Amino acid sequence: MNLNDPVELAKLLEALLLAHNQPLTIERIVALFEEDEKLTTNQIKAALTALAESCQGRAYELKEVASGYRLQVHSSFSPWVSRLWEEKPQRYSRALLETLALVAYRQPVTRGEIEDIRGVAVNSQIIKTLQERDWIRVVGYKDVPGKPAMLATTKAFLDYFNLKSLEELPTLSSIKPVQEELPVLVDELTMALEQQPALTEPVIKQEQEKSFKELLDEWDDLEEGVKTDFSDLIVVKPEIPE
Asked: For residue 76, what pLDDT is reported?
C-alpha cells in the first residue's frame, strides 16, 4: 500500500474508523504508524478529505465531533436504522432536560443559578445522573461564600449531539429567552431522545446523536457569546489535615 497516496491512505483510515468504536483524533491516527511509515498531520488531513468525498452519496458519512473523527450512518436513514434495536432508549425527566439545557447555554453555571432560572430546587439525583452520563462536569468553584461548584458540558455531550465545539451551539441573548423557550427546548429534546435506540457498538456507529442545532432550530433571539474558556475560574483545593 502506498501511504503517500491520499486515496490509498483514505482506504486505510476507513478501515481504522470502522474497526474502532470511538472517534479518532488526527494525533491518535498519526501515532498508529511505525517510524518507517511516518506520516504528517497534513497527509492525514488530506486523506480524511478524500475519505469524506468518497462517502458522498453513500449511506454513511465521515463526521468530526469533539473527540475526533468517526464514520456514522447518515441521519436521513435514522428512522429505519433505529428499528434494529428493540430496547427502548432511556427516558429522561423534564427537570433533567431543563437542567441540561441551562448548563449548555449558561455554562459555567452553579446549581443555585439553575434554580434561580427554573424557579424550583434542582434534585441532587439530576446532577448525579448528568455526571454519570458524562454530559456535565465540575470545572471550578465560584468565588463567593460557600464556593459553589460551577458546571459545564463535556466532550461526551458534544459527541452525543454531533457537535465539534460549543461554538456550534445556537446562542441566547439573555436569561429571559431561556425561561420563555425552555418548554420548547425540552419538548424537542424529549422527542429526539425517545426516537433514539439503545446504545450499541455497531461496526459503523449508528447516528443516534441528533444535531443540537436541529433540536433547537425553532429558538429565537439568538446571539453570540457562549463561554468556552474556563481559565478564569477559581479552583478550591481541599485542605489536607496536618
From this structure: 84
